[in-house]
Amino acid sequence: MRNTPQSAVVLTLFATFFWSSNFQVTKFALESLPPWTASVERFVFAVLPIFIFMALKSGIHGKVLRKNLLAFICLGAIGVAGFNGALFVGLQSSSPITAALIMATTPISANILEAIMNRRFPELIRVLGMGISLLGVVLVITNGQLMGGMVHMASGDVIIFAGSLGWAIYTVGTRKFITNATPLEITSWTMLFGVVILAMIAFFVESPISSMRSGTFESHLASAYMGIAGSFLAYLFWNIGVALRGAGKTAIFFNFVPIFALLIQLMMGNVPSLPQLVGIILTIVGVLLGQGIITAWFTSKGILEKY
Q1: Where are the bilayer-spanning segments (predicted)?
Q2: What is the DSSP string of 115-170?
Q3: Contact 71/162 with Cβ under 8 angstroms?
Q4: Whether the Cβ atoms of residue 97 and residue 141 lie closer than 8 Å to each other
């Protein structure tokens, strides 16, 4: 496929689908692998092809590594090891659609965090969108029990939310603390240091070698899929979209992640309850509002200009 703005849209949709499918595929990986081991295996499958691709495309530049070494290590620890460790541990008790909805709030969290770091008050519309989307997530997590009675929340939901904040820090940090590095170099080096840290944690809290030996073929296949399709290809396709269409136009497609995750859940026969459907809609509306997509649409139609 020749790289054109039209093909970039297709590739970006593939990227968001791969990311969405990760939430469900993680469940298969965790059937016979402990969470930290599964996360390490996933990123081993991701790091090898991404470094081969970087070496063939632009070469591996030691100057970039030396200049940003500390930032690469810290962001790899937070955005790769921390985020993915939290996702794998959290999905032991959380559901894929809940995880996807929590992650859908990350762009708004990143925008608010960036505003705080730059010492300016976040835009009111972003704060409002964050509040609505978080209300939607809570409705999904509690299955509507927020309105009365006992509220039961899986501990995994809290862990995944902490991971999403880690991803927000990673997103802001790559723009603020890394200089003179391409998106491919940032992804490659933070992934490498992230998987090293993940391996250290896995050896400390689990027995990764014996666990991988005893893991089923299906679990290893799930890890390979998440590493190659859900990490390497997803990042590559996303970066192509950013290069050809710009960051702003590409970022909008992140909103398809919870939608694709919901469709995958439905295809697997898991139908959300009515309160959860309301929560899903609220989350998506809040994310669209917080990212300015709804107001931009109304403005383009001339609706807001009347007021």
Answers
A1: 39-56, 68-91, 97-117, 124-144, 150-172, 184-205, 225-244, 251-271, 277-298
A2: HHHTTSPPPHHHHHHHHHHHHHHHHHHHTTGGGSS-----HHHHHHHHHHHHHHHH
A3: no
A4: no
The more confidently predicted of residues 274 and 202 is: 202
pTM of the model: 0.78
Q: Which residues contact 65 (CB under 8 A, 6 or more apart)?
A: 72, 189
Cβ contact 279:139 at 8 Å: yes
Mean pLDDT of the chain: 81
Closest-CA residue to 89 (of 203, 226, 198): 198
- Phi/psi at 278 (5° precision): -60, -40
Segment (H or E) for 214: helix 208-214
Residues in the chain: 307
pLDDT digits (tens, 9 = 90+) for 83-139: 889 989 998 888 887 787 787 777 777 777 877 777 777 677 777 877 787 777 777
Looking at residue 272, the DSSP 8-state letter turns out to be: P
24-33, 118-127, 194-203, range with the lowest pLDDT? 118-127
Q: What backbone phi and psi angles, to 5 degrees, belong to 58?
A: -135, -5
Farthest CA pair distance, the chain: 66
